[in-house]
Amino acid sequence: WIKFLRPLAKSISWMPYHRWIKLKKSQSAFMPHWDTYDFIGYQIVLSSFVFLMTFLGLVVLLNGPLPIAIGAGAAAFLYPLISISDVASKRQSSCYKDLPFFIDYLCLAMGAGLDFTQALETVLEDAPKTPLSNEFSFALKNMRLGMTRAEALSTMDERLENPSLKLFLQTLIQAMKLGTDVNYTLSSLSD
Hints:
The chain starts with 5 loop residues before the first helix and ends with a helix. It is built from nine helices and no strands. By secondary structure, it is an all-alpha fold.
């Protein structure tokens, strides 16, 4: 149903809405194989179903007022937006909370003689499964598939748009590009 409604979803052409959905989808990791039009199609399906059920149950059977059915459909259209925003903010909060642990652990692993990629693998093997560890796992997979470290970390930065993580990732990327000692950079960030 959702793929069937893509042409209708494409008719909603308000670009700030599309950018907001794309950002929140990437931050929340909600249905990563869906694009913005699939998400809008999902909203349309959900709101249409709720409107139809409310209309049939309340207006037709009980002679209730039509505005309640319209309001229920509108609320159902907004529900995925609220839900995805809530999940995104919880993931952002979790990333913010877990970042100091990751920085310290990476420092320890690199201080033991591992390079950045090996240290990241070690941290991810031992770290609990959190949104931040999932994002670093995804970045590590991208590195294994041929992306440079800087490209993989830049992609992660664009996907999450977390201010504290952005500072960490951009500092790390710059240190890698300039050839600075990454362990020293991580140590200074953790202080």
